[in-house]
Amino acid sequence: MSELYPNPTAVPPALEYLTQIDQILVHQKIELLEGIIGFETNNQHEIKNSMGQKIFHAKENTDCCTRNICGPVRSFELEIKDNFDQEVIHLIRPYRCTSCCFPCCLQKMEVQAPPGNAIGYIKQDWHMFKPKFSLYDMSKTKVLSIEGPCCAISCCGDVNFDVTSKDGHSVGRISKQWSDLIKESQDNSSIKDNYGVNFPMDLDVRMKAVLLGACFLIDFIFFEQTGNSGHQWGEVVMNSLPLA
Asked: How far apart are CA 194 and CA 167, in angstroms?
């Protein structure tokens, strides 16, 4: 990993815990007003380790008009805080196009840790049929790539997004997994979506944070729009594979 991630000891404050884990679970919480009348509220998430222990919590910071007029294509800022309510990661997504007809204005996101200090970037790559993204480190050097399927629709099956290193070797996978809607509603009445992020243990913590940001961006682009239809119940999992 050292050739991909220079100076791996420079861990941003409050992210030291990420050096010890290779999996993160993210649960999107149901907001009462949104569940009753469909009024779009700021998304909130709980972020846990593989043992189910809460390590971070996240909340979208977007005004009411932007959320309900622009919908899932809206610009937003997402604050990720630790258990002491101190912000440790800040995600910024500007308003961009979603159509492949506008290759100069595709999706992107900046990842900061701590807030105000950019540690990585996510940019959507133009492709006529498939969703593709490039992940960059703080020096804007491309480190990872993500490629999704032609049809990113969860219909009784998984939707896989493959993660590769810059030399083309597979290092992980992001999957939105179909879950039984009735069982999900009975067992997790306060949870709308479940996500998982798996990565190599020795991946630089800054890129772990960027992958977490990519999980949120992919959810907004491909799955947030179908939230009120009930099809978004599911799980996104990043399954890591060893680097070659």
From this structure: 31
pLDDT tens digit sequence for 14-51? 899 999 998 888 887 776 655 555 566 777 889 999 89
pLDDT digits over 177-201, tens only? 655 443 444 455 455 667 778 788 8
Distances (CA, A) of 92 to 97, 108, 169: 15, 9, 28
Longest dimension (CA), the chain: 51
Which tokens sit at 213?
């940001």
DSSP code, position 137: E
Buried b (16+ CB within 10 A) or exposed e, 110-140: bbbbeeeebbbbbbbeeeeeebbbbbbbbee
pTM: 0.80
Domains of the chain (ranges, CATH numbers):
24-240 (2.40.160.200)
